[in-house]
UniProtKB/TrEMBL annotation:
It comes from Enterococcus hermanniensis. The keyword Flavoprotein applies. This is Flavoprotein. The keyword RNA-binding does not apply. Gene3D superfamilies: FAD/NAD(P)-binding domain, HI0933 insert domain-like, Translation factors. Residues 6-410 form the RsdA/BaiN/AoA(So)-like Rossmann fold-like domain. Pfam families: HI0933_like (PF03486), HI0933_like_1st (PF22780). Residues 193-357 form the RsdA/BaiN/AoA(So)-like insert domain. Keywords: FAD, Flavoprotein. It comes from the Bacteria. Its cofactor is FAD.
Length: 418
């Protein structure tokens, strides 16, 4: 093998760029291979093109927001966490700002600010970035890592870091190659499934387009199992679409929907449009608003809910054209039930291709949490979404990618010099 490096990083997403930078900061000669003609194609898409760099929370809270094996990351975050991610960019002149739910963005509102900063750092540290050169194979002698193979030839390295991402949005380059590489050296990959995905509903109101395009702020969407137990609930925004629901609340519930769909055909979701009020309090609010009004309820209750949803709920109970005096206590109780505990039915989410994040990945039992090295073959490291870790959108996956990238890159350099 004519070309030699200390560390080779496979994949130029946030995990790979950070791994390459950190390995180089630790004195290693590093090559980064990216199959696209540019770095960070998926990262550029996040946060609606503004790049949701990280999230400003305590480490415990970060882990809570990484429902797919977040606890595996305690050791990673004890070495490099979200505050370190923010410092990394601030020290390189990137002004950051915090938005709702702790989400951190560059003040420029442009993902390119983040990707360009990483690219400049790679250049400053003399990392050899090989664009449009996909890794085809990880080379081993059966016991240790020897290097990698591309269509251009073989490259030798003492350490190889796999940061090829998941398998969602394959047009970004994340096409599951890393799972193949991991398997080729004896690793297991847990079943892959879509997470952070819009949800399809079977209810008639979807087919009828009754609520299509309606968005609700700060409502609670919950996933309920067959024993009527709530297994996940999220108070966030929700959007009704032509197929079902999307928006942050739906995305967060989607992995739980998929887990239940493995054993049942449909999954019940409940929607609470007034999470800050009990049923009793809501009834009082309604009574105050009606104040013995003689108007039809659809007019008298105007403003309680977005107009289309109000009308829909009133029609479900059959009271939209009635007045306060014509409506029974039981009918009001049913209306309140719709407002607080409306049951809708999911039968699938988008597939892996159209979901934001891959659930499942390289089996974590076979990876050392302290340094992210392979327990199967010395010199191999993993970071980012290729691991069996998935978080909510809102910066949690990107934080995972940057932080695991830092730890894997550091330890890949240490291993190369050992
Ligand atoms: C539309 C969208 C919005 C998102 N929004 C958010 C958000 O708001 N918050 C959040 O936390 N997460 C979000 N995510 C998820 C987040 O972008 C990913 O979790 C994150 O980018 C994973 O980083 P990574 O470095 O592990 O992998 P990736 O970013 O997927 O990068 C992997 C790289 O490896 C390259 N590669 C693959 N195979 C090879 C090979 N054989 N040889 C060479 N190179 C290879 C790919 O081309 C790619 O550039 C979003 C995802 C999408 C699709």
């Amino acid at each position: 093998m004519s070309k030699k490096f200390d560390v080779i990083v496979v994949g130029g997403g946030p995990a790979g760029m950070m791994a390459a930078i950190t390995a180089a900061m630790n004195g290693a000669q590093v090559a980064l291979f990216e199959k696209n003609k540019r770095l960070g194609k998926k990262l550029l898409m996040t946060g609606g093109g503004r790049c949701n760099v990280t999230n400003n929370r305590s480490v415990d809270d970060l882990i809570f927001h990484i429902p797919g094996n977040g606890r595996f990351l305690y050791s990673t975050f004890s070495q490099f966490d979200n505050q370190d991610v923010m410092n990394f960019f601030s020290e390189r002149g990137v002004a950051l700002k915090e938005e709702d739910h702790g989400r951190i963005f560059p003040v420029s509102d442009k993902s390119a600010t983040i990707v360009n900063t990483l690219k400049t750092e790679l250049e400053t540290l003399n990392v050899a970035v090989h664009y449009k050169e996909p890794i085809e194979k990880i080379i081993t002698d059966g016991t240790t890592i020897q290097g990698v193979r591309t269509a251009e030839g073989d490259y030798a390295a003492k350490s190889v870091v796999i940061t090829t991402g998941g398998i969602t949005y394959p047009s970004t380059g994340s096409q599951g190659d890393g799972y193949r590489f991991a398997k080729s050296v004896g690793h297991h990959v847990t079943p892959l499934y879509p997470t952070e995905s819009p949800i399809f509903l079977t209810d008639d109101f979807v087919m009828d387009k009754t609520l299509q395009g309606l968005s609700l702020q700060d409502v609670t969407l919950a996933v309920v199992d067959e024993k009527n137990k709530i297994i996940a609930s999220h108070e966030m925004d929700l959007l009704f679409t032509h197929f079902g629901v999307s928006g942050p609340a739906a995305l967060r519930c989607s992995s739980f929907v998929n887990q239940l769909l493995r054993k049942q055909e449909t999954v019940t979701l409940t929607l609470d449009c007034f999470p800050e009020q009990s049923k009793h309090e809501l009834l009082e609010t309604i009574n105050e608003q009606l104040n013995d009004s003689t108007k039809q309820l659809k007019n008298a209750l105007s403003g309680l809910l977005p107009e289309r949803l109000l009308l829909f709920f009133l029609e479900q109970v059959g009271i939209s054209d009635q007045t306060y005096a014509q409506t029974s206590k039981e009918q009001f109780a049913t209306f309140v039930e719709y407002c607080k505990h409306w049951q809708i039915t999911a039968n699938k989410t988008f597939g892996l291709e159209k979901s934001f994040v891959t659930g499942g990945g390289v089996e974590l039992k076979e990876v050392n949490p302290k340094d992210l090295s392979s327990k199967k073959i010395p010199g191999l490291f993993f970071a980012g979404e290729v691991l069996d870790v998935n978080g909510y959108t809102g910066g949690y996956n990107i934080t995972t990618a940057f932080c695991t990238g830092n730890v894997a890159g550091t330890n890949a350099a240490y291993y190369a010099f050992a």
